[in-house]
Write a structure and sequence with these properties.
- The chain is α+β, with helices and mostly antiparallel strands.
- The protein folds into two domains: 209 residues, Rossmann fold (3-Layer(aba) Sandwich); 149 residues, Porin (Beta Barrel).
- It has seven helices and 15 strands.
- The strands form two sheets. Strands 8-9-10-11-12-13-14-15 form an eight-stranded antiparallel β-barrel.
- Helix 3 packs across helix 6.
- The longest helix has 24 residues.
- The termini are far apart.
Length: 454
């Protein structure tokens, strides 16, 4: 009994060491980290590398705050923490500094600044000699020619959620994701006459992902092995807000150059023409974009041709079925953005090792449904009928399947799919044995070319 107890303790210690090693292998944090400098966003470098103006613009920001009133979502009771950071004015000032186009002046806490200047004056009057008073006068404060107003006007939770998972013989894996969205408006106001010179609008999605894997299996009588691994990653809201603000500042600068609102800071727009052209192209591409990187105009053509490689394995009356590689070619016609009719022909080999091996040509007709036809990435499902031709008379079957498609170009998509074939009779290999119909599983990778009008 004591030996058994020691064995269990030893096994637990080994498992703890393995788990710790795996934690380090997957990059999971296991030790405290030192403080670091703040991370940069994708727009920080773009702001710092903008062409410089002839003269910097003095600019003031009184208040640029969260206007949403949104609280963090909570599954257990109320959560009174705000979803958006409350220091967005500071983030905006940092972005203005990074651009090197502006001289930001303190206006958010102007009362503190004025109070400190008054303390300085009072102290000098009380302790300095009369001869030194005039020479020690405080310089005047800078005043802004332009004020920046606006704020975070929207925080939308769960604009897109989803996941994918599979489990087979106790081994499973799953992934889930969620997208939130933050929206920012920024406007420039002239202090000369109160005119709103320019308003820009940017948005940024905030992604949260979770990946999990598990193993659950009886390995012996009264012996159960169970293991789990998982990781969740949430995009920091502060970085998302910073990126949206930096994008707003860049957009404000470029549109101001294009529309000539910066005055003598930009004498000649020719020096900035490449920057303006790039921005104009981005605006044109953005005209048809909707939430979730979706386009109102259907991206896929009216017709498509496709080719794919397939791995096929039969389940029939013989033992030792073998996986073989085949191929499929086909044509699709879209009767609506979601639905298309597919006509295809494929070639595969039915084989039970050392028993039977037969080649088949299989024409199929399917009705396919694209879940998100206006997205680059979409799941799809399909079903239909087919016939299997070999040296014997044809065998008829039905099939259902599904998969994922991703547009890597405006007319080219890659696909991954799985298909289940079910025979109407039990004689694919020429043998009838039992009541179960012959069936098969197929797994495929392929490419899809779209042609015709969108």
């Amino acid at each position: 009994m004591r030996a058994y107890t020691y064995t269990r303790i030893f096994f637990c210690a080994v498992m703890l060491c393995v788990i710790q090693a795996c934690s380090s292998l997957f990059g999971l944090p296991s030790n405290p980290e030192k403080s670091t400098m703040g991370e940069n966003t994708s727009y920080t470098a773009e702001l710092k590398n903008l062409p410089l103006p002839k003269e910097k613009v003095v600019i003031g920001v009184y208040k640029f705050r969260d206007q949403t009133g949104q609280y963090k979502p909570s599954e257990n009771g109320n959560n009174w923490s705000t979803a958006v950071p409350q220091g967005t004015t500071t983030i905006l000032i940092k972005a203005l500094e990074d651009s090197k186009w502006f001289i930001p002046i303190e206006r958010e806490n102007i009362a503190n600044l004025l109070n400190e200047r008054q303390i300085i004056r009072s102290t000098r009057q009380e302790y300095l000699k009369d001869a030194e008073k005039n020479s020690q006068a405080l310089p005047p404060l800078l005043y802004a020619g332009i004020l920046l107003e606006g704020g975070v006007i929207s925080y939308d939770s769960n604009i897109m959620t989803g996941g994918l998972g599979a489990r087979y013989f106790g081994i499973g894996a799953s992934t889930q994701y969620r997208q939130d969205r933050i929206t920012i408006y920024l406007r420039a106001v002239s202090t000369l006459n109160g005119e709103i010179l320019k308003t820009v609008y940017t948005s940024k999605t905030i992604l949260s992902t979770s990946v999990n894997g598990s193993f659950f299996r009886y390995i012996d009588t009264e012996r159960l092995l169970e293991a789990e691994v998982g990781m969740t990653q949430n995009e920091p809201v502060q970085l998302a807000v910073s990126e949206a603000i930096e994008k707003s500042v860049k957009s404000l600068i470029v549109e101001g150059i294009r529309d000539k609102i910066w005055g003598k800071s930009v004498d000649n727009t020719v020096d900035y023409q490449a920057l303006i052209d790039n921005y104009n192209r981005e605006q044109e591409q953005n005209q048809n974009r909707a939430i979730g990187n979706r386009y109102p105009d259907n991206q896929r053509g009216k017709f498509s041709i496709f080719a794919q490689a397939e791995g096929q394995k039969i389940k029939d009356d013989y033992i030792n079925p073998k996986m073989n590689i085949g191929g499929k070619l086909g044509f699709k016609y879209f009767i609506s953005p979601n639905f298309n009719v597919e006509v295809s022909g494929n070639y595969f080999t039915l084989e039970n090792e050392n028993i039977v091996k037969r080649n088949y040509f299989v024409p199929e007709v399917n009705l396919e449904f694209l879940v998100f036809p206006k997205y680059k990435f979409t799941p799809y499902i399909y079903g239909g009928l087919g016939a299997m031709y070999s040296e014997f008379k044809p065998n008829y079957k039905g099939q259902v399947g599904g998969g994922l498609e991703y547009l890597i170009d405006k007319n080219v998509a890659v696909r991954a799919s799985a298909q289940y074939d079910l025979g109407f009779k039990d004689n694919w290999e020429g043998l009838v044995n039992g009541k179960r119909k012959d069936q098969a599983m197929r797994f495929a990778l392929g490419i899809n070319f779209y042609i015709g009008n969108k």
